[in-house]
Write a structure and sequence with these properties.
Keywords: Oxidoreductase. Belongs to the short-chain dehydrogenases/reductases (SDR) family. With 296 residues, this protein is of the alpha/beta class. It has one domain (11-287): NAD(P)-binding Rossmann-like Domain (Rossmann fold), CATH 3.40.50. It is built from ten helices and eight strands. It has an eight-stranded mixed β-sheet with strand order 3-2-1-4-5-6-7-8, with helices on both faces.
């Protein structure tokens, strides 16, 4: 049974974790720092990031990153390039869930723009710091929600004609997986950096607490059976990031019934997520929307 104690020594490694001031991101950053990594908390609210950093022992710094703004994404990447000559782990953890209909600063639907396009752009701008580093990894956090009313709506990616907060979330989490699978295909010839996906099952974080009442109420009744705390939910991400046996293109999640809780193990995603044609189309669309081209 894989646990935090299985994390290898991370001394000398640098990890950038998005959304690391709370919840899964904080638990992920805390565990990596506890095992010797230098950790950068890439967060929208710098003050909250500093408060989180004060609670994590070790070499921890804060970088402002607002994934709802491509200008902020570019500024964060530029700042990190100025301060680091290598990155070992890029963990795309930040996200929003079931938001009311709203747009990012660049006019994208909030969930697709934050969860997918923001991370797509950030990864593309940071990848040159990972490619020279043997054993480096990009890890994106998806969700069991990638199976729920989820498809890539190329005819209405920004949900302008109609809006479903559940459908939009599912699309964004499906996009996270498709991004990792296509990225791994492009990384395979380089042989140094791997792209891996993970999901936390059902974890007690702000994402759940900010969900609509129709979602929160059933979870509150079932919590003892299906909800695990953030430190347990983060284990899938930590295994994807640090287990030497992990291979690029794999997907890790809780091993219990329905993948809602339990020790992390290798899991499979929805059949649609493995469609290479859709992955490649999504990649091309994402490049056009963000203006970011990858060096692979």
């Amino acid at each position: 049974m894989w646990s935090e104690q299985n994390i290898p020594d991370q001394t000398g490694r640098t990890a950038v974790v998005t959304g690391a001031n709370t919840g899964l991101g904080f638990a992920t950053a805390h565990a990596l720092a506890a095992h010797g990594a230098r950790v950068v908390l890439a967060v929208r609210n710098v003050e909250k990031g500093k408060q989180a950093a004060d609670r994590i022992p070790g070499d921890v710094t804060v970088q402002e990153l607002d994934l709802t703004s491509l200008d902020s994404v570019r500024a964060a990447a530029e700042s990190l390039h100025a301060g680091h000559d290598r990155i070992d782990l890029l963990i795309n953890n930040a996200g929003v869930m079931y938001t009311p209909k709203q747009q990012t600063r660049d006019g994208f639907e909030m969930q697709f723009g934050t969860n997918h396009l923001g991370h797509f752009a950030f990864t593309g701008l940071m990848l040159d710091l990972l490619l020279p580093v043997p054993g480096s990894r990009v890890v994106s956090v998806s969700s069991v929600g990638h199976r729920i009313r989820a498809t890539i709506h190329f005819d209405d990616l920004q949900w302008e004609r109609s809006y479903s907060r559940v459908g939009a979330y599912g699309q964004s989490k499906l996009a996270n997986l498709m991004f990792i699978y296509e990225l791994q295909r492009r990384l395979a010839t380089h042989g140094t950096t791997a792209a891996v996906a993970a999901h936390p099952g059902v974890s007690d974080t702000e994402l759940i607490r900010n969900s609509p009442a129709v979602v929160r109420a059933p979870l509150a009744r079932l919590a003892p059976l299906v909800v695990q705390d953030a430190s347990k939910g983060a284990l899938s991400t930590l295994r994807a990031a640090t287990d030497p046996a992990v291979l690029g293109g794999q997907y890790y999640g809780p091993g219990g019934v329905g993948e809602v809780r339990g020790a992390p193990r290798l899991v499979t995603s929805s059949p649609e997520s493995y469609d290479a044609t859709v992955q490649q189309r999504l990649w091309a669309v994402s490049e056009n929307l963000t203006g970011v081209r990858f060096p692979v």
